[in-house]
Amino acid sequence: MDSIDYYNRYAVPYYEETVDASMEEVMKPFVELLSEESENAEVLDLGCGSGRDTLLLEEYGFYVTPMDGSEEMCRCASEYTGIKVQHMLFQDLS
Q1: pLDDT digits (tens, 9 = 90+) for 15-58
Q2: Are 73 and 17 within 8 A, CB to CB?
Q3: Cβ 30 vs Cβ 56: under 8 Å
Q4: Nearest CA-CA partner of 3 in 54, 66, 49, 65
Q5: Which of 7, 58, 64, 74 is the most exposed place for a label (fewest CB within 10 A)?
């Protein structure tokens, strides 16, 4: 089973285990760097999982494009964030 198969199979339990984890302290240095560059920075949230970080970054005023390789994680994150999550693999980016 590869990682995409894993996340498709266990999307709901993974979502439930991670969606409420606070990432504010971990994200703080990243947010500070982005804020120094631009008030309205654009962020590509690669492997967005539950969408938790997408919402946090939007709260800081950034424009976020969430993306995940797992169709089921995309579904969970789209439902949680209200944003269409792009279904795409890293190697498909150009």
Answers
A1: 999 999 999 999 999 999 998 877 789 999 999 999 999 999 99
A2: no
A3: no
A4: 49
A5: 58
Which uninterrupted H or E stretch holds 62?
none
pLDDT in the model for residue 24: 92
* CA–CA dist 77, 75 (Å, integer): 6
Q: Are 25 and 86 in contact (CB under 8 A)?
A: no
Residue corresponding to tokens 């800081």:
60
* Residue with the two structure tokens 């999550």: 85
What is the distance in angstroms between the CA of the first residue and the CA of the last residue of the chain? Answer: 26
pLDDT in tens, 64-93: 999 999 999 999 999 999 999 999 999 998
pTM of the predicted model as reported, rounded to 2 decimal places? 0.89
